[in-house]
Structure formats: C-alpha cells, structure tokens
Design a protein that fits this description.
Layout: E1 5-8, E2 12-13, E3 17-18, H1 23-32, E4 40-44, E5 54-58, E6 63-67, E7 74-79, E8 87-89, E9 92-93, H2 103-110, E10 118-120, E11 125-130, E12 133-138, H3 150-155, E13 164-167, H4 173-176, H5 195-200, E14 207-213, E15 218-223, E16 229-232, H6 238-245, E17 250-253, H7 273-284, E18 302-306, E19 311-316, E20 322-329, E21 346-349, E22 373-377, H8 379-384, E23 411-412, H9 417-428, E24 435-439, E25 448-450, H10 467-472, E26 473-479, E27 482-486, E28 492-497
Amino acid sequence: MASAVPISPGRGLGQNFILGSSIYDVLGEIRANHTLYPSTSLIYDSTTPLSSNLILNLDMNGLRFRFDGAEQRLRLIEVTSFHKARLSYNGAELVRGGQSPAFRFIYNKLFGPTYPGEYLAEQGVYILSYPGISFSFPVDKEQWKEDVDFVSLLSAANAQPAVAMAIFQGSSWAEARSQLFTRPPVNPQNPNVTSVSAKQSPANDEVELVRVYHSTGTIELARRHNPSFFITLQSTTPQDLVTGLGPPSTIYHKNDHRLSIHRTQGSIPGADESEVESDLLTQSDNYESEDDDGSDSGSTDYFYNYYGHGFDVYISTNAGHVASKVILHGNVPGSYEFNRWRRCRWEIVYGDDNGLATSGSGATGGGATGSGIRVGIGVDEVRSSGEYYFGGQPVHEAVGAATPSTTSPPLNSEMPFDEIYEKLKERFGATQRPMLLNRGSDSPSSSVELLGGWDEGEAGLRGAGSAEEAFGNTELYGFPGLIFEVLRNKAVSSLTVF
C-alpha cells in the first residue's frame, strides 16, 4: 500500500506535484509512475488551447490539476475524493477510520483556528480557508445565515465532513482565485531547479523565455537564476551549448532526405530544402531515435535535443560544427508533438519598429503523452466542468499574454498565426501558399507526407477545423529566417529560426 503523501499548503503534494511546475514535468512524473496513476485525462479547449486553461484529471487518485494555457504551469491542485487520495499533514493522515476529515478535526487539531471563510450559495458549500489551502464543506441553504456561528454550525453532530480540498498560492481562497492563473508562480517549472544548483552551474538552470533578434541572427535564452545565454547562428558551437545549457537530452543525426526534390522548387519562400527538411525531421523522427554515432547516416549534420527546455539546435558541419538553426516547440495540446518537449515561449524582436517590436519582455516563465493518458477535447466539455469545486472563475477564462514594454507588442508564441501572418506580411509581403504536412500517428518515422497547398484562399488561411484534422495536418509558412508550423486552430506548433 502506498504511503501517505504529505500536504504542503501553498506549495503542493509531496515532492513531485508542486505549484508552478510545467505540465511537461507533471505528465513526466505520472508516466514514470503509471502504476500509481493508472487513469489520466486531459481536458482543454481545442479552439483556443493557448489562452484557455487545462484540466488534468487523475480519476482513480481523486486528484485534479489545473494549468494556465499560456505557460502551461500548475496553478491549482484539487482533491476531489479523500478516500482515493491518501494524504497527511504534519504526520497525521486526513482520513481516519474510513471517514473524510471532519471540521472539528481540521479546525481544532490539524490546522488550528482561522478567519471566517465564505459561503457559496450556488454550490451549497462553505469554504474554510487557510494560507495556501482550503476545505469545502456542504451546507444547505436553509441552514446558512450571514450572522451564523460557522464554528458551531460545522461542528454540529449532523454536520457533513469535508468533500474537497484545494492547494493554491495565496493567503486565502477568496484572495487567490481572482489571480489564480495570472499571478507569477513562485516555484520553478522543474521542481528540481533550485537557486543553489543553478548558481553552481548554469546548466542546472531553466529557460523561461526565448527572444529571437531577427535582424542579427541572435537568439537570447532568458534564464531563471542566471544571466541570459545567447545563441548566434553560424557561430555558436556544440561546446558553447554544453557549457551554457548542459548536455542535450539526445543527439539525433540527420539521415533523411525525402524533401530533396524541393531543393530548387522554392516551396517555402525564404527557406531552402535543408531548412524545411530539418524542421520536419526534428519533430517527427528524433523522439523515437536513440543517440547514435552517425556511422550509417547520410549526413554528418545533427540535432542537439533539449526536451526539458523545449527546443532543438541544428548543428551544421559545413561551416565547422556550428548552430545553423533553432527549433522552438509550442507543446500545443492536440498537436502531434504534445508533451515531447516542454512548452517554449518566445517572442520575435526586430531592429526597427515598422509595426513590430523594437524591444520588449513579453512572456516570462516556460516527449509524447504517457501510456494510459486519455486526451479529451472540445470546448463544450471544458465549459461543462468549468466551475471550480470551490467556486470562482470558469476554467475557460483566458490567460492573456504578458504586457510588453513597448506600444508595439512583439510577435509572441501566444498569438494566433493569423495575427502573426498579417504583421509579417506588412514587413515582407505576402508569402506563397503554405506547404501541408501530414502528421499521421502510425509511425513517427514514416509520418512526413507533403500534401501541397490549398486550392484557394490567400496564403491558405482558413478557419479552424476539427481536432482530428488539426492533429493530422499542419501548415508550414516560410518567411526570411523563419518557418512556422501552424495547426488548423491557428496555434503555432513550432517556430524554426535559421
């Protein structure tokens, strides 16, 4: 029998489910312990996956996690069944004798007295709130009055025990819920990242934001504890990457040339065959590949895959083993590559304004889904479960991108591609129709299938299709130095900078 998991108010459950953690790390923990968490489902809005919140249900464990859509970081931990979740606080288990925790046990023995809570009449529950943690008690409307002594009411012999618990960041649930998905998280995305370890070696730090300086070919990796690390295309070496970021998760040697027919066709303006091909291969083949020595490789070029940071670096040997392009992954729910990489947030900075950003510090902060993870999608399903157990904002409340420091905001990873396209068209002119990529689920090594452009419509811009279509086919748009992989819902699945 599994031991009781300790509760840390304002922080999380145990050492693995910590507020502020990325969904990539949370799902990684669940997948590594699939026997403990056998049933997992993810609910999200397939039309706006980056501006709507995500719900991760662990049905058989009585747990529910809520993440914001933009950063994909854990904001709320809910216990929906005390009998399914074995929990403890200061060594005392919450469930005793098969009974859920009673008010008297929580108020008099476990946590002690606290300020009066609030009664949510629509849900018929009273919220007993402490800093970082709250308990929900059923109370009939007929029993509740504004001047009632809540201690006597909830301590009565016929009072019902707690039916749910929430762990959050804030002094009380009433104070925290209005900023639940917008307040900057205190904890890192990876629970193992600490200021001490990061200061000892920058390789132990985490990347919170990537800024692409388009005019100079420089890519800034803004880190949590250390100064930014810069990648200069055609200059940064593998040694520089290992020194600044640590060794990659894997090294993938490029050995596929299925797109060589497009070398002279100019299918994607601003990108030759090598850029397009490397962009596709890093997202479709390398996850299934082990590190190899490249002995049977058709090319000596290779990728440094940093799954935990959310990007890959393509190393070209033509100019002497230097970084020639970087692929930034969006980890969009419903996409083929979901949870292969942690979400990488980015913004594009230009050297002059012209309707685009001159500077800014937009967003701050941030492998395949594990066996047994069931993905449920659809806005109706999200809205049907949209109210928190403790009352408050609906789950589909949008999380806006961080406010930039200029009047002309930079292009960023949370923007729908329609907006990005219009800005880039102003600067570079209209591009050709996009190239279509079929990301079938049969085999990553055989899923690259080009379908050609749309029959009509300016640059192939169309309305969002179904979730299945978004998963199967994506569009590749090319601009000078940039390739965008776009889902049918117009979310940017990945950005290649070259």
